Amino acid sequence: MNITRRRVLSLAATLATTALFATGCAPGTAGGSGGTLRVLIGANAKYGDKYKTWQRDVAEKFKQSTGADLEFETYAAASDELTTIQTSVVSGQGPDVYHIGSTFTPTAYSTGAFVKFDAAQWEKVGGRDRFVPASLGISGPDLDNEVGVPFTSRPYVLAYNTEIFEKAGLGKPADTWDGLLAQAKKLTDGDTYGFATGYADNFSPWKFIWTLANQLGNTIVDGTVVRVDDPAVQSAYETYFGWLSKDQVINPAAAGWNDAQAAVDFAAGKSAMMLMTTVNATPTFEEGAIKGKYAFATMPTVAPGQTAPAVDGRDVTSIISGDNLAIADYSQKKDLAAEYVKLVTSEEEQLKYNKLFGDLPTNAAAAKKVQDSLPSLAPLLASAEKSKSTPFTGAWGDIQLALTNIVVQSRQDLAKGGVSESALKSALEKAQQESQASLNRATGTK
Amino acid sequence: MSLLTKQSRRRTVGERNRPLWLLTPGAVLITLIILVPLVIGIYIAMLQLDQYSIRKWVSAPFIGLENFVEAFTSTDLVHAFGNTVSYAVIATVITIPIGVFAALATQNPFRGRGVVRALFLIPYVLPSFVVGTFWRTMLQPDGVVNQMLLGAGLPAGEWLTGPSSYWVLILVEAWTAWPFIYLMALSGLQSVDQEVHEASAIDGALWWTKLWHVIFPYLRGPVALACLLATLNHMNNFSLAFLLFGAPSPFDVQILPTLVYSMSFTSLRFGMGAAMALISLVLIALPLFFYLRAVKLDTGEDAGDKK
How far apart are CA A306 and CA A301, in angstroms? Predict the structure, then answer.
């Protein structure tokens, strides 16, 4: 009678023993050996082999200059990175240096588990003034509390099909949203559409809303107050949804696309412009029919419905986007970690990284050289200069999620002809409550 | 070996002298891998544990039942629970006839039966990632499914958002999971004695009377167990919904695993996530208890032998 049960038990026991052995061999216990610096870095699927070679080169140079070994650990997705940070933060051991996405920096900062940079610490990594000033915008909440050292910059721009533009007798993309929309309407013809973007992407929707709202003077977070339930944000959504439903300059199928699919569509020459894209998409473009027939341009800074040049503070082209480096507070090798940061943000290494992977340098001298030698990247550098930091609060992750969620829940209506004002308003109200609740927790526990 | 000797000896020894201490290793392991984490989980659910307090999680503010109250009052928990249970049950109900029929159809030997049986298992052995990605691609607004519908003169649909997304989840889940019912039904069929077939043939039973009165009773046990396991699997299936709809997922297809995921890993509210996971555990365990009673799967006796 108890045979089956006992079998289950013994099976469970076997499994448990295996599990115990497995965890016993986990990297957490193995990394302590004397001269090894552990660096957590995102995987790079598009340039797999090249990326490995780069890692080997850096490790070699690091060994030459410091005598210590360098060990890269890669994460495939943001969630893996988060898991590593969580376990390391709780256990007080793990990688010494983290490569983190720029918008993730506030979240990382809010854990309090990373080294804050004062003048002396900045000196150790080569000085704060070696960096492009705009790239430091999301390093910390203020000058005294910076944790992120800029490593690469990937500002958002638009890509346009030069052949389609020439055929239509248009020079280059307009610098107002109204002008750009007029061009998009002119270029929409049969199967070809003016804009390409992915409404079902997990990230790009909130970037549009944030950018458009900022151009209308709403920074979403104002001190301790969230301003999502606000005419500027509503207008941002209306513009963003309107491109597909009202203006019809976007393929209706884009209601179900993510950005990768939109990039493929643009690369096939089926749309004249790809909005909110970055240098990361280059391999996709180069593989497509538009190889050699596209160029980047900054996105307009003049809000929809306006013609006058944007006033200071509103002329936003992009979020500050790229990667930051952060040194773990629990690390026993903080000086070695600083050496690593110094090495990979040096002019030479930054130029090399740009050449290999296209990401822009954050090192000012390297950025200058790229600007002079590669005019095709000039729009990206221009956009980097006009990038603005998303609000530096641990609540930003939630707010970003709430902004994206509005698009997720509206896609059905969007595909059916348009999102009604009443539906949008109630969605904004809900997002406002959720975001404010999260911000309250952030400010309450600081 | 040792298992056998222990068993034969136990029969001769009185109930009171059963060497229960032999269970100690198992008990220790169960305590370590199930009970301790469960208790920690319950404790975490009562903490205001988030990104601000995780660094020193033991000293995170203790807030009692606040997380639970908030989960019920101001999140989509109840809605997600309804979705999860209904989708899991519907998916199971759909797969039973398919699985049983497939098992019956491949019961008698025929040319190529091995190949057919192998083919049947393909949906079950494909990784969730592959299944999710493929279906997501096919169900795009301009995907293969809509193109076929339009080609047949039918209206195209929005499959990955809105109310239809709920049914898409059920269908894709059923597509992936029916071979499990098939396997269990097949194992039930294997246990039917050849003599039973002969006896019913001698009695002149028609094929459907034979099926209903002779074969199905054999299947009752294995299929009831399959239903239970399949339903629980559906409820816990995170990857398929995540791959098809992403997180945050459309409201109509908000289910517990993706909701708990969003709460814990995008909002970083670990305490709240733990509270939600516990609530769903209780909500699912209750009906489970009654089901186990009803189908007598918890008596330890082989239900398949009952007629």
Answer: 10
CA gap A149, B218 in Å, rounded: 68
Distance CA A163, CA A293 (A): 6
Question: Which of A134, A183, A215, A141 is closest to A383 using CA atoms?
Answer: A134
**What domains can be seen in chain A, in order of their start residue?**
5-154+321-380 (3.40.190.10), 157-316+393-443 (3.40.190.10)
Torsional class of A114: left (φ above 0), alpha (ψ -120 to 50), beta (otherwise): beta
CA distance A288 to A266: 8
Q: Give A130's DSSP letter.
A: G
Rounded CA gap, B265 and A107, in Å? 12
> Tokens 């005294």 label which residue?
A144
| Cα B94 from Cα B116, distance rounded (Å) | 21
Residue A101 phi/psi, 5° resolution?
-65, 145
| pLDDT(B147) > 50 | yes
Q: What is the pLDDT of residue A446?
A: 43
Instruction: Name residue A219's amino acid.
Output: T
B129 reaches A (C-beta below 8 A): no
Query: How is residue A438 annotated by DSSP?
Result: H
Q: In what order do the strands lie in the sheet with A271-277?
A: A193-196, A271-277, A157-161, A294-297
Give the span between the Cα atoms of B291 and B92, in whole angstroms.
14
CA distance A9 to chain B (A): 6
Closest Cβ–Cβ partner in B26, B265, B268 for A12: B26
- Of A173, A177, A175, A193, nearest in space to A185 by CA: A193
Task: Read off the pLDDT of each residue in A380-409 and give the average, rounded to a whole number.
Answer: 92
**Host H or E run for residue B196:** helix B194-202
Contact A232, A432 (CB under 8 A): no
pLDDT tens track for B171-220: 999 999 999 999 999 999 988 888 888 888 888 878 888 888 888 888 88
Higher pLDDT, A390 or B207: A390
* Residue A72 contacts residue A14 (beta carbons within 8 Å): no
Task: Look at residues A322, A338, A329, A308 and name the one whose alpha carbon lies nearest to residue A390.
Answer: A322
Rounded CA separation B136/A61 (Å): 44
- The 10s digit of each residue's pLDDT in B22-65 is 899 999 999 999 999 999 999 999 998 888 888 888 788 899 89
**Quick check: helix, strand or coil at residue A219?**
coil
CA distances in angstroms from B194 to A77, A393, A398, B210, B305, listed in the order given: 55, 72, 63, 13, 16
- ipTM over cut 0.95: no
Find chain A residues with C-beta within 8 A of B161's C-beta.
200, 255-256, 408, 411-412, 415
Can you tell me the distance from the alpha carbon of B304 to that of B296, in angstroms, rounded to the nearest whole number? 11
pLDDT value at A429 more than 90: yes
The model's confidence at residue B276, banded by pLDDT at 50, 70 and 90, is very high
Report the sign of the C-alpha dihedral through residues A192, A193, A194, A195, in that order.
negative
Closest A-chain CA to B51? A111
Mutation choice for B interface testing from A411, A429, A430, A433 by most B CBs within 10 A: A411
Strands (E), A127-268: 149-153, 157-161, 193-196, 221-222, 225-226
Task: Dump the DSSP string for A377-402.
Answer: GHHHHHHHHTEEPPP-STTHHHHHHH
**What values do phi and psi take at B62, rounded to 5?**
-85, 120
- Neighbouring C-beta atoms of residue B53, cutoff 10 Å: 20
Name, in order, each residue with C-beta under 8 angstroms of B59's C-beta and a sequence gap of 6 or more.
B53
Nearest CB among A5, A12, A89 relative to B54 is that of A89
pLDDT at A10: 44
- CA atoms within 13 Å, Cβ hemisphere of B126: 21
Nearest CA among A202, A221, A215 for reference residue A432: A221
Q: How confident is the model at residue B299 (pLDDT cuts 50, 70, 90)?
A: low
